[in-house]
Design goal:
The structure holds two protein chains of two kinds. By secondary structure, chain A is an alpha/beta fold. Chain A contains 18 helices and 13 strands. Chain A has a seven-stranded mixed beta sheet, with helices on both faces. The radius of gyration of chain A is 25 Å and the shape is globular. The relative contact order of chain B is 0.14. The chains are: A alpha/beta, B alpha/beta.
Chain lengths: ~475, ~500
C-alpha cells in the first residue's frame, strides 16, 4: 500500500471530484440493503428481494437452447481456426455479419415496420456508452438536452458527467398518464433558454423507463414536429423495443421517419442495446443508429473508445442472423413478459395498489401516492424506507427518476423467478393489510388518550374486528412505552 | 436508403464532432489506403503492398489455439462452459469478475518476471488501452491543461488524450544523438515552455517499452522521471502495453518495480499504469484495457467511468480462465519472447547486409529504421517524398517518423510481428533489391559525373557519352535534369 508522504493534495480533474456520477445519492441505500441481506429461496427466505434491477431473466432457456444446438456456429470452428482472425479484428466498423444481424433483429423487433441499414449501425460497449457518445457529438459543454420526466437515473451520469452537457426536464404529470405534451416541450425549451442554455435536442426513451409504457404515435409525431421547428436533434432510446407485450402497440421513430420518406430525418438518432431484450447486459452490446451521415462517421470514430469485443460480436452475429431463432425468441419473450406483468399488476391490485397502465418493459410503475403521510419527497422516501426495512423489497422511488409527483415507484418483475415474485407480492399484501390496520390503530390510540376511553370501550365499538384490533392496539401501546 | 442531407446540420453538431481531433485527416492515411486498395497476398497478389505499419503480434496464435482447444470450459458457449452462461451474461458489475481481475494481476506480474506483485483491487477495466488513456486523462486533467509526452510517440495519443477531453499534449523532444533517451533537460524545457504559455501541466505520459522506438527505459532514467514528477507534483502515466514483448532477459524495469524498490521516491498517488492484452497476447479485437493506479481516488473514479467501456463478461471469463493457467502463461511469455527476438534479429541482420541500420532495441513489435541517408535533404518534405517511394515502388507500408512527431526526419517504424515468415522474406528482398539498385545507380551516376567532366573538354566525346548516358540513366537520377540536357 502507498506510504504516507506529506504532500499538498494531488490534483485531480474537476470531473473526477464532481458528484455527477450520481453514486452518492441516497438511493444507493436500497442497493446496500439488498447487498447485505439478499433474498434466497432456501438460504435466506427473509432477505431483501431485489426489485430495483431492470434485468430480463425470463428467456434464458431459449438462449441456452440455441447455444446447445449451434455449437459450430458459436465456437471458432473446428481446430479453432477462426480464433486468430477474430482476435485480431479491431476495425471500428464492426463485424459486417454482426451489423447485418443487428439491423435484421431491429427490424424483426419492429415487426418489419421499419428498415435498418447495416451501414448506419455504429457499435458501442452498451447503451451507456452510446448515449454518452451521442451527447459528445450533438452538444457542447454547457448546452442542454431536454429529457421527459420521470427518466432513467443513469442519464444524469451518461449524458452529463464527462460531457459537461446539462439535462433540462420536460415535466410530465400523472394527471394525463405522464404523456409528453407540446406545452411541456415548449415550457422546457423556454426554461432552458431562460437559463441561457442552448438546447441541442430532445432525448426520449421509448418504451419508457420507468413508466413501462410506449409513447403513442400521435405524441411521437408532435415531438418530431417540435424538434424540426426548433431545428434540434431527437434521440430515441429504444432499448426496450423488444419488450413490448403486444407487437402492434409499439411505434418506433424509425416508422414515423419512413412514413415521412425520411424528410428531415438527419436530426434523428436511435440508441439500442441487447441488455434488456436479450438479457445480456454483461456482454456490453450497444448501438447508435443515425440517419445523419456525419454523425455516423463521427460516432464510428469515437466508438474506438468503447468497441464491442470481437468475440462477442462473433457469437451474436451467429445468433441474431438465425431468423428462425430470433422470431421465436421475440415472440416467446414478449408473451412471458406480458404474463409476468399481468401477474404483478393483479397481485398489486389485490393488495389495493394501482399501477400506471403499462404495455412494455421489465417493470411496472406503481402508485403509492394515496398511502403517503405527506405528498412530498420526504413522504415518498418514508414509505420507501419502510419497503426496504419492513417489507424487505428494494424498489425505486420516483424521486430518483426526477418524477414531479410524489409516491410513484418502479417495480421490476423480470429479474426473478415466478415463485420469488409471488413471495414479493405476498409480502406487499401483508404490509398493506398491516398498514391499513396500523393506521386505524395509530388513530385509535391518540383518540383513546384524548378521550380517556377504555380499551374495552373501543373494542366494543368496532365489533367483530375487535379481536384483531385489540391485539394490534395492545402491541402498539406496549411499543410506545 | 436515400436520406436527404441538410447542410444546416453541420452547424447542429458539437465542436468535438466537427474538429479534426479524431486524427484521420492526416496524410499518413495514404499508406493505409495504398495497402487497402492493393494488399499483398502470397498467391493472389504477390506484388501487392505489404503491411508493415500495423503493430500486431501474430507470432504465437498456435499456442493460444492449442490452449483453447484443450479448455472448452473457457467458453460459455460450449457444453462444458454453458453452465455459467446465464450468470456471466447477467454480470455487469463494473468491478469486473473477481477471477478476471485476479488473472490480469497474475499475468501482469509474470510478464515482469514475477519481480513485482499487482493488487487485483486496483485493476480497472476500460475499452482497450485507447479507452484507458482517455479515462485517465478525464480523471487527471481539466480542459486546456496539458500532459508532457516524449517524442517520438504513438500517433493515437493525439486522439485518445485530447479529442473529447480537451487537454493538450506538449512534446518532450528526444534526439538521435543520445538514442532518443529522455533527458531531465528536455523535461524541464518542455515544462517551462508550457508555463510560459500559461498552460498548466498535469502529468507526464511515457510509453515503456516505447512505441515507436522499441527501447525501454533504464532504471536510472526512470528514477529521474519519478523524481521530476514528484518535485513538480504532477502525475506519471506509464503505458506498459508492450511489457511482454521485451526480448532481453530480465532487464526491463516496470514503474511498479521502482515503487517497490524505492518506496519513498515519490508520492504513490501520482503513479498510474495503462495496460492491455492487445500487444502481449495479440488480442486487439477483445478490447481488454486496464488502468492500474496507486491512487485510491483515481481507482474509484476510473472504475465508475469504466461503465462507458467495460470488457464483455464473455471475454472476461475466457481471459480469466486462460491467464490463471500458470503453466500456459509462463510458457507463452517465454516462447513469445523467443519468437519475437528471432523475428527482430532476422530483419535487422538482413537489412544490415545492405547497410540499413536501426536504433538498437529489444522490445516492441517493430524497430526504428534509420533511412536518413536516403533523403535528398534532411527535411520532412524529403521524408514524405521518400515514404511515397517506399509505398509506391518498394510496396511496403511503413510509418514515417513525422507521424510520431519525431523531431528529426529520416526515421521509419517498421512492424515485424504481424506477418508470417514467407512474407518477411519477401519484404526483406524488396528492401534489399531497392537498396542495391540505388547503390548501383549511385555508383554509375558517380562514374558518369566523373566521366562527364572529362567529356566537356571534348565535344565529340560528349555526344557519344550523352547517348550512353541516356541509355542507362534512370528518371530519378539527379543527372537527368533539364539543366544538364541543355548543356548538350
Amino acid at each position: 500500500m502507498a506510504i504516507e508522504i506529506v504532500q499538498p493534495s494531488v490534483g485531480l480533474s474537476k470531473i473526477a471530484v464532481s458528484e455527477t456520477h450520481g453514486e452518492n445519492s441516497p438511493y444507493f441505500a436500497g442497493w446496500k440493503a439488498y447487498d447485505e441481506n439478499p433474498y434466497h429461496e432456501k438460504h435466506n427466505p427473509s432477505g431483501v428481494i431485489q426489485m430495483g434491477l431492470a434485468e430480463n431473466q425470463v428467456s434464458f432457456d431459449l438462449l441456452e437452447e440455441y447455444l446447445e444446438s449451434n455449437q459450430e456456429a458459436t465456437s471458432w470452428g473446428k481446430n479453432v481456426s477462426g480464433f486468430r482472425e477474430n482476435a485480431l479484428f479491431q476495425d471500428y466498423h464492426g463485424l459486417l455479419a454482426f451489423r447485418k444481424a443487428m439491423a435484421s433483429f431491429m427490424e424483426q423487433v419492429r415487426g418489419g415496420k421499419a428498415k435498418f441499414n447495416p451501414e448506419r449501425i455504429v457499435l458501442t460497449a452498451g447503451a451507456t456508452a452510446a448515449n454518452e457518445l451521442l451527447t459528445f457529438i450533438l452538444a457542447n459543454p454547457g448546452d442542454a438536452l431536454l429529457v421527459p420526466t420521470p427518466y432513467y437515473p443513469g442519464f444524469d451520469r451518461d449524458l452529463r458527467w464527462r460531457t459537461g452537457v446539462q439535462i433540462v426536464p420536460i415535466h410530465c404529470e400523472s394527471s394525463n398518464n405522464f404523456q409528453i405534451t407540446p406545452e411541456a416541450l415548449e415550457s422546457a425549451y423556454d426554461h432552458a433558454r431562460s437559463m441561457n442554455m442552448k438546447v441541442r435536442g430532445v432525448l426520449i426513451t421509448n418504451p419508457s423507463n420507468p413508466l413501462g409504457a410506449t409513447i403513442q404515435r400521435k405524441v411521437l409525431e408532435q415531438i418530431l414536429d417540435f424538434v424540426t421547428r426548433k431545428n434540434i436533434h431527437l434521440v430515441s432510446d429504444e432499448i426496450y423495443s423488444g419488450s413490448v407485450f403486444h407487437s402492434d402497440e409499439f411505434v418506433s421513430i424509425a416508422e414515423i421517419l419512413e412514413s415521412r420518406n425520411y424528410k428531415d430525418s438527419e436530426r434523428c438518432h436511435i440508441v439500442y442495446s441487447l441488455s434488456k431484450d436479450l438479457g445480456l447486459p454483461g456482454f456490453r452490446v450497444g448501438t447508435v443508429y443515425s440517419y445523419n451521415d456525419q454523425v455516423v462517421t463521427t460516432a464510428r470514430r469515437m466508438s474506438s473508445f468503447t468497441l464491442i469485443s470481437s468475440q462477442t460480436q462473433f457469437l451474436l452475429a451467429s445468433m441474431l442472423s438465425n431468423k428462425e431463432f430470433t422470431e421465436k425468441y421475440i415472440k416467446i419473450n414478449r408473451e412471458r413478459l406480458r404474463k409476468r406483468y399481468e401477474m404483478i399488476v393483479d397481485g398489486l391490485k389485490k393488495a389495493g395498489i394501482e399501477c400506471l397502465k403499462g404495455n412494455a418493459g421489465l417493470f411496472c410503475w406503481m402508485n403509492l401516492s394515496p398511502y403517503l403521510n405527506e405528498a412530498t419527497r420526504e413522504g415518498e422516501l418514508e414509505i420507501w424506507k419502510k419497503m426496504m426495512e419492513e417489507v424487505k423489497l428494494n424498489i425505486s422511488p420516483g424521486s430518483s427518476c426526477r418524477c414531479s409527483g410524489a409516491g410513484w415507484f418502479r417495480v421490476c418483475f423480470a429479474n426473478m423467478s415466478e415463485e420469488t415474485l409471488e413471495v414479493a407480492l405476498r409480502r406487499l399484501h401483508e404490509f398493506m393489510d398491516r398498514r391499513r390496520n396500523g393506521q386505524k390503530t395509530h388513530d385509535l390510540s391518540a383518540l383513546a388518550q384524548v378521550q380517556s376511553f377504555s380499551l374495552g370501550d373501543i373494542c366494543r365499538l368496532f365489533g367483530e374486528r375487535s379481536k384483531d384490533l385489540k391485539s394490534d392496539l395492545i402491541s402498539s401501546l406496549s411499543d410506545s412505552r | 436508403m436515400e436520406v436527404a442531407l441538410n447542410n444546416n446540420t453541420h452547424k447542429l453538431l458539437s465542436k468535438i464532432a466537427i474538429n479534426d481531433g479524431h486524427g484521420e485527416n492526416s496524410p499518413y492515411f495514404d499508406g493505409w489506403k495504398a495497402y487497402d486498395t492493393n494488399p499483398y497476398h502470397p498467391r493472389n497478389n504477390p506484388s501487392g503492398v505489404i503491411q508493415m505499419g500495423l503493430a500486431e503480434n501474430q507470432l504465437c496464435f498456435d499456442l493460444i489455439e492449442e490452449w483453447i482447444k484443450n479448455h472448452p470450459e473457457a467458453s460459455i458457449c460450449s457444453p462444458q462452459g454453458g453452465f455459467d452462461f446465464k450468470e456471466i451474461a447477467l454480470f455487469q458489475d463494473y468491478h469486473g469478475l473477481p477471477e478476471f481481475r485476479g488473472a490480469i494481476a497474475n499475468f501482469m506480474s509474470r510478464v515482469r518476471g514475477s519481480r513485482v506483485k499487482f493488487d487485483p483491487s486496483r485493476i480497472v477495466m476500460s475499452g482497450g488501452a485507447t479507452g484507458a488513456h482517455e479515462t485517465v486523462a478525464f480523471c487527471l486533467a481539466n480542459r486546456g491543461e496539458a500532459f508532457l509526452v516524449p517524442t517520438p510517440y504513438y500517433p493515437g495519443f493525439d486522439r485518445d488524450l485530447k479529442w473529447r477531453t480537451g487537454i493538450e499534449l506538449i512534446p518532450v523532444v528526444c534526439e538521435s544523438t543520445n538514442n532518443f533517451k529522455v533527458t531531465l533537460g528536455a523535461l524541464e524545457e518542455a515544462y517551462d515552455k508550457a508555463r510560459e504559455s500559461n498552460i498548466k501541466v498535469k502529468g507526464l505520459l511515457i510509453t515503456n517499452p516505447s512505441n515507436p522506438l522499441g527501447t525501454f527505459f533504464d532504471k536510472d532514467t526512470l528514477k529521474t522521471l519519478v523524481r521530476f514528477i514528484n518535485e513538480k507534483n504532477i502525475h506519471l502515466v506509464c503505458d506498459e502495453i508492450y511489457a511482454g514483448t521485451v526480448t532481453n532477459g530480465n532487464e526491463f524495469v516496470s514503474i511498479a518495480e521502482i515503487l517497490e524498490e524505492f518506496p519513498t521516491i515519490c508520492n504513490h498517488n501520482l503513479i498510474h499504469i495503462v495496460y492491455s492484452l492487445s500487444k502481449d497476447m495479440g488480442f486487439p479485437g477483445f478490447r481488454v484495457g486496464i488502468i492500474y493506479s496507486y491512487n485510491d481516488t483515481v481507482v474509484n473514479i476510473a472504475r465508475k467511468m469504466s461503465s462507458f467501456g467495460l470488457v464483455s463478461t464473455q471475454t472476461q471469463h475466457m481471459v480469466a480462465s486462460m491467464l490463471s493457467d500458470n503453466d500456459f502463461v509462463d510458457h507463452f511469455i517465454c516462447e513469445s519472447k523467443i519468437r519475437l527476438a528471432h523475428r527482430h534479429e532476422m530483419f535487422i541482420g538482413e537489412l544490415a547486409e545492405v547497410g540499413i541500420g536501426s536504433l538498437e532495441s529489444n522490445a516492441g513489435l517493430f524497430f526504428w529504421m534509420d533511412l536518413r541517408r536516403f533523403l535528398k535533404e534532411p527535411t520532412f518534405e524529403s521524408e514524405m517524398t521518400f515514404w511515397r517511394i517506399i509505398i509506391n515502388e518498394i510496396k511496403l507500408n511503413v510509418s514515417p517518423g513525422s507521424s510520431f512527431h519525431c523531431e528529426e526526419p529520416g526515421w521509419f517504424r517498421v512492424c515485424f510481428a504481424n506477418m508470417d515468415d514467407e512474407t518477411v522474406m519477401v519484404a526483406v528482398e524488396r528492401i534489399k533489391s531497392f537498396v542495391l539498385e540505388r547503390r548501383m545507380l549511385e555508383i554509375k551516376t558517380k562514374a558518369m559525373a566523373k566521366n562527364k567532366k572529362q567529356c566537356w573538354q571534348n565535344n565529340l566525346q560528349l555526344k557519344l557519352s550523352s547517348r550512353r548516358l541516356e541509355d542507362i540513366m534512370s528518371p530519378h537520377s539527379p543527372l537527368n535534369s533539364p539543366m544538364l540536357r541543355a548543356q548538350n
